[in-house]
Amino acid sequence: MPTRQFYTIGYDGRKPEEFLSLLKAKDIKAIVDVRLRPDNERQRCYVANIRHFLDKNGDFPNIMPNPARKMAIFLTRIISSATEAFLKDRVLVSMQCNRKGCHEEILVWLDDLNKDIEWFCPECGDNGFISNWRGTKWDKTSRLSSVVAELARRG
Ligand SMILES: [Zn+2]
Q: How far is the CA of 101 from the centre of ligand 1 (A)?
């Protein structure tokens, strides 16, 4: 049986030419739109630098508006899950979506310690990128050097 390889890609926040060049780079022959509601323009893409949610000690600030605190907690949980998944060489881990009324589990992943953590909700389509997560309290790879983390991942 011939094997087929599947990739995932998000388009939000990418320029069309960037999207196409990524498809060409992997020699993608077909695309399937797996959003449950592709017409849902209310899906949101969150591009977050986690340091913007933290004080200079890397903690949540004492004074922080509630929505920002809620988002910060959500994002730091994603960092924990994604870095743990990275160490175990698992691509996806699920946790509950943050969107009000959405009870789906989101997918989180991290391909490379030098890249952003990505997440996606297959139900509401909310998705995001988290940058600057390395070395935060929620980064489970932070006590290891990149090399050791890579070795741990390979077992
Ligand atoms: Zn959702």
A: 8
Calculate how far, in angstroms, residue 128's C-alpha sits from the geometric centre of ligand 1.
Answer: 12
Tokens of 108: 């989180």
Domain hosting 66: range is 37-154
For the cut 90, the answer to whether the pLDDT of residue 76 exceeds it is yes
Tokens of 29: 């022959």
pTM: 0.69
Cα(102) to ligand 1 centroid in Å equals 5
Is the per-residue pLDDT at 7 higher than 70? yes
Does the residue 3 lie in any domain? no
- Does residue 47 fall inside a structural domain? yes
Q: Is 105 helix (H, G, I), strand (E, B) or coil?
A: strand
Distance 49 CA to ligand 1 centre (A): 21
